[in-house]
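[09:14] KT: can someone run the structure on this one? pasting the chain below
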Amino acid sequence: MPDTGATAIVPLAALFGLLAWCAIDDIRTRTIPHAAIAAIILVYIVFALAGHADWLSGLISAGILLLLGFLLFYFNIMGGGDSKLIAAMGLWVGLSHMVAFLLYTAIAGGFVTLAVLLIHHLTARNSGNITPAAPTVPYGVAIALGGSIAAWQAALTEAI
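[09:31] RB: done, structure tokens below
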């Protein structure tokens, strides 16, 4: 049985910090840094090498989510950074938690969208601008929230 100490907790804490970085940058710039995606993958490798992950399940999940993300990007529904972040989180959640990850992300996405629309409406109303530009949604925030919950759930149920 793998050690459940620092070899599991440190990578998970690093993941949560990296997801926070992605969310904050997405709010500020509407982009997700390539370095953050690369770091999420590297931290996963450390986590998996310590025996806390099922490589095959993670790779299959990441492949499925990469395809889904590219389709969403192709149809201009989601940005490229969001698509890459979804695929990187596929490594962490694996096949057994992929649907939960997508559900948590969709629910968080609804709340993020409502918050953006409310802020946009209030800002437009206060500025007197009758026809403001359409707002953009930092969906990386929703992916980070859904990914945090699903990765934590996966780590707990897979007996890290």
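[09:33] KT: thanks! Residues 48 and 54 are 7 Å apart (CA to CA).
[09:34] RB: yep, looked fine to me
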